């Protein structure tokens, strides 16, 4: 059954399942809860923003690089650098822009879930 023929509830369950599957992929890749807890400067939230940032909002911005020199770079690169240096938006480069956007939203939601889990563990004193 195509996505257009699924009920809103089915699409919602599909979306939640995609995020859960991506989160499990991240954990298996080594981004465990202990690893996430080491990102106390909210890098996971920055990573979430990186993946969820709409392309139309990815404008060039001017920043100071700590010296007197101004640097022009895309907002997405600026957010990505704040998250971590090796973040990649399109590591598998699908040909379809919609598929790439879906993958990035799923990745962003999974990172957001990791950040939410980290914050809940902090609240409960689980760190």
In words, what does this structure look like?
The chain has 127 residues and is mainly alpha-helical. The chain has helices at residues 8-28, 33-37, 43-52, 75-83, 97-123, and strands at residues 60-64, 70-74. Strands 1-2 form a two-stranded antiparallel sheet. The longest helix is centred in the C-terminal third of the chain and has 27 residues, at 97-123. The protein is flat and about 55 Å long. It starts with 7 loop residues before the first helix and ends with a helix.
Mean pLDDT: 82
Beta strand count: 2
Strand content: 5-15%
> Major sheet: size, sense and barrel closure?
2 strands, antiparallel
- The topology string of helices and strands comes to HHHEEHH
Query: Gyration radius, to the nearest Å?
Result: 17 Å
Which class of secondary structure composition applies to the elements?
Answer: mainly alpha
Low-pLDDT regions: none
Q: What is the tally of helical segments?
A: 5
Shape: flat
Helix content: 55-70%
Layout of strands and helices, then pairs:
Layout: H1 8-28, H2 33-37, H3 43-52, E1 60-64, E2 70-74, H4 75-83, H5 97-123
Antiparallel strand pairs: 1-2
Helix pairs in contact: 1-5, 3-4, 3-5
Please supply descriptive tags for the structure shown above:
127 residues; 57% helix; flat
Would you kindly provide a brief summary of this structure?
With 127 residues, the chain is mostly helical. It has helices at 8-28, 33-37, 43-52, 75-83, 97-123, and strands at 60-64, 70-74.
